[in-house]
Amino acid sequence: MTSSRPKVLVIGGGFAGLSAVRGLHGVEADVVLIDRYNHHTFQPLLYQVATAGLASPSIAAPLRHILRDQPNVTVLLGEARSVDLQARQVDIDGVSHRYDYLIVATGSTHAYFGHDEWAQDAPGLKTLEDALAIRARILTAFERAEAAEDAGEREAWLTFLIVGAGATGVELAGTLAEIARHTLKREFRRIDPATAKVLLVEAGPRVLPAFPDSLSIKARQQLERLGVIVRTGLPVTHLDDRGARIGQDSIAARTVLWAAGVAASPVGKTLGVGTDQAGRVRVSAGLSVFGHPEVFVAGDLACLPEESGTIPAIAPAAKQMGRYCARAIRATLASRPIGPFRYRHDGSLATIGRMAAVADFGRLRLSGLLAWWVWLTAHVYFLIGFRNRLVVLIDWAEAYWSYRRGARIIFPSQRAPPGPAKEQLQELQRRAGR
Amino acid sequence: MTSSRPKVLVIGGGFAGLSAVRGLHGVEADVVLIDRYNHHTFQPLLYQVATAGLASPSIAAPLRHILRDQPNVTVLLGEARSVDLQARQVDIDGVSHRYDYLIVATGSTHAYFGHDEWAQDAPGLKTLEDALAIRARILTAFERAEAAEDAGEREAWLTFLIVGAGATGVELAGTLAEIARHTLKREFRRIDPATAKVLLVEAGPRVLPAFPDSLSIKARQQLERLGVIVRTGLPVTHLDDRGARIGQDSIAARTVLWAAGVAASPVGKTLGVGTDQAGRVRVSAGLSVFGHPEVFVAGDLACLPEESGTIPAIAPAAKQMGRYCARAIRATLASRPIGPFRYRHDGSLATIGRMAAVADFGRLRLSGLLAWWVWLTAHVYFLIGFRNRLVVLIDWAEAYWSYRRGARIIFPSQRAPPGPAKEQLQELQRRAGR
Q: Cα dist. B84→A224, A383, B79, B87 in Å?
């Protein structure tokens, strides 16, 4: 490793960080990419892993493998704890790493609006680990319902509450309804999975608030056609391992999934510069931290000035920011000027379920089957790796024809569900000695 | 559920148990299948999951789904703790289940020959959970080697010791050598994965002891061609988190995998009848427990009388025993006699690595490419589910052409490896709060 070349540290191997590293291909610099996972995750399909439609490896690729032909890049497995802007150092698992240029792209995590204690009973969906935990909860709920002796208990296990009707909440609700009504058909002897209730609850006035009104209405219709019960204008006021209070109603639900809020990754705050109320780092129109032109923030963690317009927290925006950061570093190294970051919005897509989706391309608005085809094509196209694309297509084709979901694997160690059975299960697992 | 029909309890959804349940299709009885996992695992390909070649769902299928069209079958998720032959009851997670007929097919687990403390440093490969734990160890070892500052430490992380040269040990060693030499090419910056040492150690005089001498020699040659260092006639005398003592040598290896011994599942002993030294339950030539014609034992757990001949612990034998138990119950219900169980040996197959395998069909003995094609065809054919077959074929085709392995996913929670870094890592994970 030569030390005369500038060192670029990139924290986070998501869409923003990975695009930045790829954009630095061939640059005369030592690039180090740090991530706590060894893989890049295709987040838009996380809900498919959570609902047992896809295996984890189908939507993940090892960062080392993606970057193997970029000799100026070193991949480091570890978690960034804090950034010291003055010393130009990042603390990675207790070890200080110096940088000349820094790109922080650690994304976002779940937000429970001051109720962090809800996290254990209502998991969110941000990583593959989250997806596997949610998969285990969903599949276990049907198992517990089948084993339940009490009718109330059975009903609580067969009630699925999804909080938040953004893209993730809508995807989870639509897919859960399909699983209950079709996938599990004929598999149980004591319960009818089709009687399961899937509730989608939104505090705001409509589902998919980022979409135009007309598409929100279409989305709601499609959800209801799939069997989802949609309730809008109702915030969650209480939540525990027995269920939730939504407005005036108490809902007994053993499975509550959280898709209501996101907060910026905690690394942002350690920069010690201004953040917005979601914890996102305020940056210049050139995505750099004020007073530190060598430090960039990209992706969900970045809060741009108002004149940059509203930038949605979606993969294409993160990619564009990552690529811009790489261009900015290239420009600086070549002593060239560079204009501000400009976000180009190509459109918004949200899938709802089987042949149901909405698409917003400005003047062109689609819903239903056509939107679903657009969604499917786009997501297969942007998946990394030929193998993944092929395998995902096979899985989807099978799910389409037979309603089967190929990844219905859970382990006893994952099975501790919310609810009073928890201690009992843990005791059983302890006795099992594994 | 009618209670007038006899109740058949089947413990274990492996090859034996699942074949028994399938064999009871249409029988006028209530069949209950109990397994601690919700899925049947295709054990012959576990090593592919352990070596990141296949995703878990590719070799597993939900038991409920496999049996959905058998209305006389109820699947129950739970772990059998003990059997009470007199009361005709099985304790499943603390709840007693009555039976009229019982088939015990709980298989085998790892045996450390009186050194149970070795288990944590040398995991074995019996379940999907084992496979994912081994995958994490293997992939983490290369990450630690890349991060190591000390040459000795680096070498220890790059030394992989496989204990036991039966089919599993040979498969693991051959695949590990391929990963080190090919899969990880160009992905690391500080280490050359091709310098990794893969050692296969066997206490007996030769590899694949269940095969004829000539094929053992062929297998060893093929292993050495793939880059595996083979040592026979050397028992492990000590093992800890730093490595192992093999004969007179101390080997510093951070990754030790155990493929040396199996013991019968502990449920067998709770029957309170005779067992052999491996803990297998002694049964009659009709696979029933002496004095209890209503209780059968099938698969790896069964120890047959000498006149039944030697029955290898392989999937085809387990399937045959399972089917026999179903036939025996059918015969009893119809008051028909049934002859003793007869094992039909179709042949033995063991794969070694890329285009390397051995096959023993009695007079016909194959090795190398041809044996490998036979092995591949047989394993794809016997995989459950069309989707799985297709996806596995795609994965293997890709691995064949590009040496890529599509399932290289590890999570921080899996990363605690053997070795003195363990506490440090656990501390990091604790601080990470997940």
A: 51, 54, 15, 6
Instruction: Confirm or reject contact between B387 and chain A (CB < 8 A).
Output: yes
Give the closest-approach CA distance of A35 to chain B in angstroms: 11
B38 at A interface, C-beta within 8 A: yes
Beta bridge partners of B97: B90
* Model pTM score: 0.90
pLDDT of amino acid A166: 95
* Angstrom distance (rounded) from CA B198 to CA B200: 7
- Does B187 sit within 8 Å of A129, measured CB to CB? no
Closest alpha carbon to B418 in B252, B191, B170: B252
Residue B248 gets which letter from DSSP? T
Residue-wise DSSP of A305-355:
-GGG----SSHHHHHHHHHHHHHHHHHHHTT------------EEEEEETT
Determine, for residues B65 and A406 on separate chains, whether the beta-carbon distance falls below 8 Å. no
- Tell me what pLDDT residue B119 has: 92
A206 CA: distance to closest CA in chain B (Å): 33
Instruction: List residues of A with catalytic annotation.
Output: 171
Query: From the CA of B106, how many Å to the nearest CA of chain A?
Result: 14
For B154-193, b/e burial (b = at least 16 CB within 10 A) is: bbbbbbbbbbbbbbbbbbbbbbbbbbbbbbbeebbbebeb
Give pLDDT tens digits for A377-423: 999 888 877 677 887 888 888 777 777 887 888 887 765 443 333 44
Q: What pLDDT band is residue B326 in, cutting at 50, 70 and 90?
A: very high
DSSP state of B57: G
Q: How large is the ipTM?
A: 0.88
Mean pLDDT of A208-223: 96
Confirm if B144 and B296 have CB atoms less than 8 A apart: no
Nearest residue of A to residue B391, measured between CA atoms: A391
Whether residue B388 and residue A411 make contact (CB cut-off 8 A), yes or no, is no
Answer whether B406 sits within 8 Å of A412, measured CB to CB: no
* Residue B4 confidence class, pLDDT cut points 50, 70, 90: confident
Q: In this predicted structure, what is the pLDDT of residue A120?
A: 92
pLDDT of B424 strictly over 90: no
Chain A residues in contact with B68 by the CB 8 A cut-off are 185-187
Of B380, B377, B349, B319, whose CA–CA distance to B58 is shortest? B380
**pLDDT of the residue at B384:** 74
Q: Which residues pair with A239 in a beta bridge?
A: A244
Strand partners, A231: A201
Subunit contact B409:A189, Cβ cutoff 8 A: no
Render pLDDT for A248-276 as a digit per residue (tens, 0 to 9). 899 999 999 999 988 999 999 999 999 99
Angle, alpha carbons A40-A41-A44 (nearest 5°): 145
Chain mean pLDDT for chain B: 91
The radius of gyration of chain B's CA atoms, rounded to the nearest angstrom, is: 23
